[in-house]
Amino acid sequence: MRIEQRLAELGLELPEPMKLPPGVSLPFPWVRVYGDRAYVSGHGPLEADGSLAQPLGKVGAEVSEEQAYAAAGKTALAVLASLRRELDDLDRVVAWVRVFGMVGTAPGFTRTPAVVNGFSDLILRLWGDGAGRHARSAVGQAALPFDIPVEVEAEVVISAA
Amino acid sequence: MRIEQRLAELGLELPEPMKLPPGVSLPFPWVRVYGDRAYVSGHGPLEADGSLAQPLGKVGAEVSEEQAYAAAGKTALAVLASLRRELDDLDRVVAWVRVFGMVGTAPGFTRTPAVVNGFSDLILRLWGDGAGRHARSAVGQAALPFDIPVEVEAEVVISAA
Amino acid sequence: MRIEQRLAELGLELPEPMKLPPGVSLPFPWVRVYGDRAYVSGHGPLEADGSLAQPLGKVGAEVSEEQAYAAAGKTALAVLASLRRELDDLDRVVAWVRVFGMVGTAPGFTRTPAVVNGFSDLILRLWGDGAGRHARSAVGQAALPFDIPVEVEAEVVISAA
Fold this sequence. Notes:
The structure is a homotrimer.
Chain A: H1 2-9, E1 31-34, E2 37-43, H2 65-87, E3 93-104, H3 112-131, E4 135-141, E5 150-158
Parallel strand pairs in A: 3-4
Antiparallel strand pairs in A: 1-2, 2-5, 3-5
Helix pairs in contact in A: 2-3
């Protein structure tokens, strides 16, 4: 339980499953495992209790770059929580291969890589430069669900249970 | 021909290949098969004859959420038509692993998951909760080709011919 | 060195590694290799010296469709330069399977496929209709890093070194 231990050393806790807003139905899993791959659905930032992390809104307007960086870190924790629920053990994630970072941007905000670094930096602290090494894009979206400022989908390689 | 039969039972028909608008050249296939994977190019909603489904425009402005949900269902049928042409038999699709749903959104429209559910719901009706289970994102784009309201790309696992 | 030779025949040179603008940190590789796959991070258009290609801005406003088509071709060269640095030999790329083209669009510009054709056309000239054949999406983003007009991420199949 190497990754769990590092999370504890960093004082980080994984959030509860996302509490869906009323009237929302999401007919898909947060993680789809097939063979040696786990495909991670788009996740947003959560508070510890699974509620949407505040502030909501566009980065560059209602949400500052610093707040968005923090939101990307919370998004990473939400992804790790889903992976732990699906895989039981985060040490089964043996390689991060693709991270697709989406930022809800106000007109004129283009520092999307600085925002998504909040995700990448945490993955690299936990998995290191080898297994944590991932291809990445970080781009601005016209809209994200629930007006979250950041959303990330990913693909990771897993070992057998 | 299990999937074909379910489509018939649901009264659903797959559309003709997309009729490209004048002056448009798309130098790529709708489906790229490699090994046990079929990579599905971004598809939009089509009418039965392969013309672009109406209405066109942004969801939340020219296109209502309900119309966009229906467009996402037509997008699923367009994807299935491409897969059938490439694979001959839709039963060769043994697992859906990734669905990336893109919605052309008017300012303020954030209910992108409700729109892309029109795609996911149909896949789940046809393939069920096992093989149909897919990781998904559903996000808002500043623009989609031809001003279509919805576009979906996907990755599926296929069995040998 | 088949691909290198075709590049030379076409009079095309691969650019230097991207010169990051001041204050920008990108904690991820341009290419992530795992098994028989190379996952290509989002790349933008570069000049030969690795500086961002001009003009910057939105397609349909500061950047014309023709300029954006050219930028997509330069984006392809930037991707090839990263792949060559990672793989040593571009002939190790035996199949292109997925190209995801993102265009920074001004309101009303929807000809995103015509822009991303600048990427696809070059890949097809170099690898041909077999190995170069790729699934593709081409969509409009609200923002791209550094205000580049085009960004492409991709997945390719590689042979052993």
